[in-house]
Design goal:
It is found in: Cytoplasm. By secondary structure, the chain is an alpha+beta fold. The chain is built from 23 helices and 15 strands. The two termini are about 30 Å apart.
């Protein structure tokens, strides 16, 4: 490629949208300074205005950067400072904020993916693969006559038609074990939403479980109080769903519950089992506590209501809010506040890849009126929006920091919690890597405080992502290297590993729809002894809504080609030897984590693969 800024230069386009070149000859004069040297790396942004045409006073000056990483206070020359400001000004004009829904994190001000610049759009490979996958899925279920059927399922066996649509070992395991209590409980540890379970030291007053109720599971010689003191009881509370708006599907009102589930860790082998379920936050004669000793269909229906609640909380909060929406804030703030030569930009840019595309596409096709969420889930778009607004009022920084979240929920030692085990390994590897990179470019706490671009980045995330809520605990500025390391680790983890953990298994756990129904057509039971197979099937979502959601989750669970696993850096943004050594060490540690996970998984009947590093995408791109 010929460019007036290069003197006998080679260049290539990087996979994250930034052009990369290496100067092969003498330095290039720029404003009287010799800015480039032999073999030095240079970056400019594909599509930057003015990049290909020199001005009267020389080439476009803010578009090209030396490969050497520099924080804001390290560029002393006024022209270099001006270059940084002009670059950011141009990007701030290109990437603007907007409010999509009141009370949500702010997002990119683009209506459709057609409006995106080339730097943020899917590659042709990724777009084509996604389109072909979608068409094949719709065609297969349409041929089976399921997408247009608005009525209820005729039988459980008829639902297997959807399961057979795209089988995996995990979907078959779910199908075989979905009714079992042990599998029901295990999903709170290693299923789609492994972030809600917490140790119960005191029963909530509005969950009046008695010793007599749970004696058949606890056995003789113990009591609820004894197990509470021993730390063997756990609680999953979906109370945030209480009173949330529900949807209308095919002209029929849908229903929701706000259940509480008490779980028991058996002594010895550590198996987790459900003890009791209450389907509302208000105890009383119309809100019975369901037990494993109840009639089969009473108990299965109660567990299925819990699974439906988990679907709603997972899709609206754990998946959409905590990963997609907040990561879009991280991406936009990075593009708007950190110039190309900033070491944090180079560290974070691999984790921005395609996020603006997939989120813009979601606002077009998923979370907009008359699309999948609105037409086929029990809460609909209004319920999703209300749930996100509620969660934003409660959202805390510690929830996004895995070690703090694990401690806060008291689940440090519960056995068989592979999300925690693998997640902590990944967090530790990312944290060590980030700490080394920060140590290279920030020699002291003062250097962190004095980096105006860094502080603007943090402030924009605080104000646009967390809406300026001081009660969130999210910092609005960073004062120390330690705080910066934790913050950047949080960003990278949530843009990569967290999304993989809560997104990659969506089809695995939802393909057999009764395991995780997206909606419920009948209200929660107010008494025992009324449930039956026929009533159970009638409660589940209609055929067309079931298939609509399952297709969407199948597409959202699988990367449509053009992947970049965590720890792969084909662009080589960093040119300093110390940074490259840190990258190599990070890759080596991820490889060891992967090996350990795969050895462990050989002994599991249902391997936990969602946090195996080669399967973790570096960014949220689907």
């Amino acid at each position: 490629m010929s460019h007036p800024f290069f003197s006998r230069a080679s260049s290539r386009e990087t996979d994250s949208g930034w052009h990369h070149g290496q100067v092969q000859g003498e330095g290039v004069h720029w404003g009287g300074l010799r800015g480039w040297h032999l073999g030095q790396n240079v970056y400019y942004h594909r599509g930057d205005p003015g990049r290909d045409s020199p001005t009267a006073s020389g080439p476009s000056r803010q578009r090209v950067h030396c490969g050497r990483s520099k924080v804001s206070w390290a560029d002393h020359h006024p022209k270099l400072q001006q270059q940084r400001r002009e670059e950011l000004q141009a990007r701030q004009e290109m990437y603007r904020w907007k409010t999509y829904q009141p009370g949500w994190p702010h997002c990119l001000d683009m209506e459709t993916v057609k409006d995106l610049d080339l730097n943020t759009k899917y590659s042709v490979v990724k777009s084509t693969n996604l389109y072909l996958r979608a068409q094949s899925a719709f065609a297969e279920l349409k041929i089976k006559g399921l997408l247009e059927r608005k009525g209820s399922w005729r039988s459980l066996s008829e639902m297997e038609m959807v399961l057979n649509f795209q089988k995996t070992p995990a979907t078959e395991y779910v199908f075989e074990h979905w009714q079992e209590d042990a599998f029901f409980a295990s999903q709170f540890l290693n299923g789609l939403n492994p972030v809600l379970i917490h140790r119960c030291r005191r029963l909530p007053e509005n969950f009046p479980v008695t010793d007599a109720m749970v004696a058949p599971v606890l056995g003789p010689g113990t009591s609820l109080q004894a197990e509470l003191e021993r730390g063997s009881l756990f609680l999953v509370d979906h109370g945030i769903l209480s009173g949330v708006r529900t949807n209308v599907i095919n002209g029929r009102p849908q229903f929701s519950a706000a259940p509480m589930t008490l779980l028991y860790q058996c002594p010895g082998h550590g198996l987790l089992l459900p003890l009791a379920i209450q389907l509302s936050q208000t105890p009383g004669p119309n809100s019975p506590i369901f037990l494993p000793s109840d009639d089969k269909w009473d108990w299965l229906l109660a567990k299925t209501w819990v699974r439906n609640a988990d679907f709603s909380v997972h899709e609206a909060l754990t998946h959409l809010l905590h990963t997609h929406l907040l990561s879009e804030v991280f991406v936009l703030a990075t593009l708007r506040q950190l110039p190309h030569c900033h070491p944090l930009f180079k560290l974070l840019v691999p984790h921005t890849r395609y996020t603006l595309h997939i989120n813009t596409l979601a606002r077009e096709l998923l979370i907009t009126p008359k699309r999948v969420v609105d037409r086929s889930t029990g809460l609909g778009l209004r319920g999703f929006s209300e749930l996100i607004q509620r969660s934003m009022e409660q959202l805390n920084y510690s929830v996004l920091c895995l070690p703090e979240d694990i401690r806060a929920r008291g689940v440090e030692d519960i056995p068989g919690y592979y999300y925690r085990d693998d997640g902590m390994q990944i967090w530790g590897a990312v944290e060590h890597f980030v700490s080394e990179i920060i140590g290279i470019y920030y020699p002291s706490d003062v250097s962190v405080r004095d980096d105006s671009e860094l502080q603007a980045w943090v402030w924009e995330i605080f104000s646009k992502g967390f809406l300026g809520r001081e009660s969130s605990g999210l910092p609005s500025s960073l004062e120390t290297r330690e705080a910066l390391v934790q913050y950047v680790t949080m960003v990278i983890f949530n843009c990569s590993a967290k999304h993989s953990a809560v997104g990659s298994g969506q089809f695995d756990y939802c393909a057999w729809m009764p395991n995780l129904p997206p909606s419920m057509q009948l209200p929660p039971p107010t008494s025992k002894g009324q449930a039956s197979l026929e009533g159970f099937i009638a409660t589940l979502p209609p055929v067309n809504a079931s298939c609509d959601v399952i297709i969407a989750l199948w597409l959202l669970s699988k990367e449509p080609g053009d992947q970049r696993p965590l720890g792969t850096y084909p662009e080589e943004h960093f040119t300093e030897e110390a940074s490259r050594q840190s990258i190599a060490a990070f890759q080596s540690r991820l490889a060891q984590i992967s090996q350990d996970i795969r050895v462990r998984n050989q002994g599991l009947v249902l391997p936990y693969t969602y946090l195996d590093p080669p399967l973790i995408e570096s960014s949220i791109s689907i």
